[in-house]
Amino acid sequence: MIVKVYLDLILLTNFILDFVLLWSVGKFACLKIRPLRLCLAAIIGAVYSLSIFLPQLPVLLAFLVKQVCAFLMILTAFQIKSKRKLGQAFLYFYLLSFALGGVVWAAIYLNKGFLQAFNGIGVLEGVSYGWLVMGLICILGLGGGLACFFRQNWLRKQLLNQLIICFAEQWVEIAALLDTGNSLFDPHTRKPVIIIESQVINDVLPVDLSSDLTIEELFGELKARWASRVSLIPYHSVKAEGFMVGFQPDLVIVKNKWQEIITTEVVLGIVVRTLSLEGDFQALLHPQILC
Fold first, then answer.
1. Domain span at residue 57?
2. How confident is the model at residue 117 (pLDDT cuts 50, 70, 90)?
3. Last residue of some domain: 84, 103, 127?
4. Are 182 and 193 in contact (CB under 8 A)?
5. What average pLDDT does the chain have?
6. Tell me, what's the pLDDT at 114?
7. What's the pLDDT at 42?
8. Is 118 helix (H, G, I), strand (E, B) or coil?
9. Could you tell me the sign of the dihedral formed by the alpha carbons of 129, 131, 134, 135, in that order?
10. Which among 34, 59, 43, 38 is positioned nearest to 11, based on CA atoms?
11. How would you label 23-36 residue by residue, b for 16+ Cβ within 10 Å and e otherwise?
12. Number of folded domains in the chain?
């Protein structure tokens, strides 16, 4: 029996599958995705897939060689600077590979295809490219959706911290989210700023924040009582720019699963709005506080 093998189709198919796989890894691991790097990594995977046609070189199909190939693909696809991130990417690479394998098995049953062994590798036959395209669309949709769910739920929970604020022998305990995008510093003291909702510290500060005070009025009220503790902090975001009132508490305690930090070297940036629509947190931590 003569079997025709089209190397161009094999290369193209494996290139597309590897590209989608690496794109999904980047989404799940929160890595910066660069299409050119993904293409180069997918080319490595596609070329390696041709090793099944080299039975005279069985070493190419050895377990260790496969791991080296996966390692090279990940390093080529992403600019990873920490061992922890590299381990995460490697883990997601294999988990998503198994998920992609599930799509292949589904294609077998839905399209009455079958597998046969070829040089120790399962080769899928009788499956049209239409099913393959549908499978890729499913992987893209599920990969993006699951990655979004992962970041918004599990990852957010990992970034939540317990924040305890002390001022004038009064204590307030709230939930704070570590915000890596928070780069605010007090312009006078150069202390990192914790952005906090005004309503949660209303009972601690000597001014009624529930009243309709403007930024200038709030600053004036606090400045009159606690001149050395109050400042105006400029901020700039995509949607707006302006000033927020900064207030230095007596003490701040940050607790999470891994550490407990007690510090006085922080400033509270007061905002008169809700930070989380779901009510999961009431403050945004500056990343330097946890360093």
1. 7-127
2. very low
3. 127
4. yes
5. 76
6. 47
7. 92
8. strand
9. negative
10. 43
11. bbbbbbbebeeeee
12. 2
- Determine, yes or no, domain membership for 163: yes
* Whole-number Cα distances in Å, 251 to 169, 174, 231, 290: 10, 14, 17, 15
pLDDT over 70 (residue 142): no
Q: Do residue 113 and residue 224 come from a single domain? A: no
Residue 225: inside a domain, yes or no?
yes
Query: What is the reported pLDDT for 78?
Result: 93
* pLDDT digits 0-9 by tens, 20-68: 889 888 877 778 889 999 999 999 988 888 887 777 777 877 888 888 9
- H/E segment holding residue 217: helix 215-225
Report how far residue 156's alpha carbon sits from residue 149's, in angstroms, rounded to the nearest whole number: 10
Q: Which of 60-69, 113-122, 132-141, 240-249 shows the lowest mean pLDDT across its residues?
A: 113-122
* Claim to verify: residue 286 and residue 164 sit in the same structural domain: yes
pLDDT at 13 over 90: no
> Is residue 145 situated within a structural domain?
no
The secondary structure of 33-84 as a DSSP string is: P-HHHHHHHHHHHHHHGGGGG-TT-GGGGSHHHHHHHHHHHHHHH----SHH
Query: Do 116 and 175 share a structural domain?
Result: no
Is residue 151 in a domain?
Answer: no
Q: In terms of domains, do 123 and 163 share one?
A: no
DSSP string, 129-163: HHHHHHHHHHHHHHHHHHHHHHIIIIIHHHHEEEE
What count of other Cβ atoms lies within 10 Å of the Cβ of residue 258? 6
Residues 170, 122, single domain; the answer is: no
In sequence order, what are the residues at sequence separation of 6 or more whose Cβ sits closer than 8 angstroms to the Cβ of residue 210?
199, 202
Q: Based on the domain organization, do 179 and 262 belong to the same domain?
A: yes
